[in-house]
């Protein structure tokens, strides 16, 4: 049976992995961390999971809170049998050191993104992945977007040449792929207001959106366009332009979302007047195998009533344009829309029929010249449930390390090449 060891929990994504129980995982969890608000927040979330009325969990936590938690972990948790899984989610700067420590102790690793936020850490990431492969350990980052139903169906349609055709190349001014991702600093998670640590607002610790949210956008783009054929950064990727701009956060808002009464010293350089310039919004243009791609990620303070994070995507092919729409105009659920550029009706119906085996009830609704892919609610499990779906996939790899697909490692290296180079480009471009 596998066992969880949680290392320095600092982001709620780590706790969401434990929002459900798993048959393959023992209920007793070891937690190694310094004592402080990050640890207390994690403990509170697990307590709420254990005490909720519906589907309560049964986690039993054994907490080792001390300043030298990594040294203690190394002394106490050596695992030569490959039965221990380290869960790591927190500060992005320094995350790779935690991953290295867990692998050095013989553990598999499930770690939240981003693993790195600066280009100079890419060689070290490559060594980490090589080490994991050599020791038959799984080192996996949390890409929940792969399990979102519209992303799955989008990829199936984009890789059907009779429906999508070939991806257009586009240009810098008119990219073939465009994605915009909207997020909110004040939000609710698992039914409760989500308090963020003060360091979340330090892009040197957390990483800006190009390095953080950008991991999901790059992962989705490459998987949609190329499936299991991961691009090679040296041959296939050309970085074009990137820039960043701030979201202004007042001290009152900062107090509300962090619980801190004053600006921490580490944020002093970003405080202008009575507000913080949170430099996390970004835009990136790059080309992959000749296809021009544009991402834009934006953080606002709070979603409107009944709203949430938003995601929009456009993939332009020679036979169809595929669009993911979300927001007030499309409803809060993501909608997948197919806009034909050729006579694709019969091919689209064949593809949707073929998808019934894996996704029963998926259908088509005609809206003028376009089709919307009808997705039954049972397939829309929600962002938080995607964590359990990903965890189950990862646990299968941990039990059978040889089952990890060969494309996973090159895909991760390509992804972090794009995101870290985007940060470097934005640095050179300067403030907007």
What does this protein look like?
The strands form 3 sheets. Strands 7, 10, 11, 12, 13, 14, 15, 16, 17 and 18 form a 10-stranded mixed β-sheet that branches. Strands 3-2-1-4-5-6 form a 6-stranded parallel β-sheet, sandwiched between helices. The mean pLDDT is 93. It is globular, with a radius of gyration of 22 Å. The chain starts with a strand and ends with a helix. It is α/β, with parallel strands linked by helices. The protein has 13 helices and 18 strands. The chain folds into 2 domains: 3-142, Rossmann fold (3-Layer(aba) Sandwich), CATH 3.40.50.720; 146-384, 2-Layer Sandwich (Dihydrodipicolinate Reductase, domain 2), CATH 3.30.360.10. It has helices spanning 12-16, 37-51, 69-76, 95-104, 122-134, 149-158, 203-206, 213-226, 233-236, 251-258, 345-354, 383-399, 408-429; strands spanning 3-7, 28-33, 60-65, 84-88, 108-111, 139-141, 177-186, 188-189, 192-193, 237-250, 271-272, 275-288, 291-302, 310-316, 320-327, 331-340, 363-367, 370-374.
């Amino acid at each position: 049976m596998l066992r969880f060891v949680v290392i320095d929990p600092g982001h709620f994504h780590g706790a969401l992995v434990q929002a459900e129980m798993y048959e393959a995982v023992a209920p007793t969890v070891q937690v190694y961390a310094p004592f402080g608000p990050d640890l207390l927040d994690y403990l509170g979330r697990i307590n709420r999971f254990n005490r909720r009325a519906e589907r309560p969990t049964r986690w039993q936590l054994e907490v080792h809170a001390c300043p030298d938690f990594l040294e203690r972990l190394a002394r106490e948790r050596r695992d030569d049998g490959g039965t221990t899984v380290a869960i790591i989610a927190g500060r992005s700067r320094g995350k790779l050191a935690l991953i290295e420590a867990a692998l050095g102790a013989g553990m598999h690793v499930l770690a939240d993104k981003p693993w790195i936020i600066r280009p100079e850490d890419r060689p070290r990431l490559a060594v980490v992945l090589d080490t994991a492969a050599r020791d038959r350990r799984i080192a996996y980052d949390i890409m929940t977007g792969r399990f979102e139903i519209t992303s799955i169906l989008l990829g199936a349609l984009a890789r059907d040449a009779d429906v999508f055709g070939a991806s257009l190349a586009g240009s810098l001014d008119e990219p073939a792929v465009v994605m915009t991702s909207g997020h909110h600093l004040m939000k609710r998670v698992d039914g409760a207001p989500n308090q963020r640590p003060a360091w979340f607002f330090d892009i040197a610790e957390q990483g800006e959106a190009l390095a953080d949210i950008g991991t999901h956008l790059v992962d989705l783009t490459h998987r949609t366009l190329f499936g299991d054929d991961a691009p090679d950064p040296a041959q296939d990727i050309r970085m074009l332009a990137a820039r960043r701009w701030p979201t202004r956060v007042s001290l009152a808002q900062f107090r509300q979302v962090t619980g801190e009464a004053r600006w921490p010293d580490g944020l002093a350089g970003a405080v202008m007047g009575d507000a913080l310039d949170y430099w996390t919004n970004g835009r990136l243009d790059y080309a992959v195998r000749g296809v021009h791609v544009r991402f834009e990620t934006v953080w606002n303070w709070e979603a409107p009533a009944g709203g949430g994070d938003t995601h929009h995507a456009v993939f332009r092919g020679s036979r169809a344009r595929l669009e993911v729409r979300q927001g007030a105009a499309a409803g809060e659920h993501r909608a997948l829309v197919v806009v034909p550029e050729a006579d694709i009706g019969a091919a689209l119906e064949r593809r949707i029929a073929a998808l019934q085996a894996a996704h029963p009830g998926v259908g088509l609704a005609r809206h003028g010249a376009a089709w919307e892919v009808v997705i039954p609610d049972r397939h829309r499990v929600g962002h938080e449930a995607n964590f359990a779906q990903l965890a189950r996939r990862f646990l299968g790899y941990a039990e059978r390390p040889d089952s990890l697909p060969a494309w996973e490692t090159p895909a991760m290296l390509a992804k972090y090449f794009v995101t870290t180079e985007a940060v470097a480009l934005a640095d050179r471009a300067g403030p907007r």
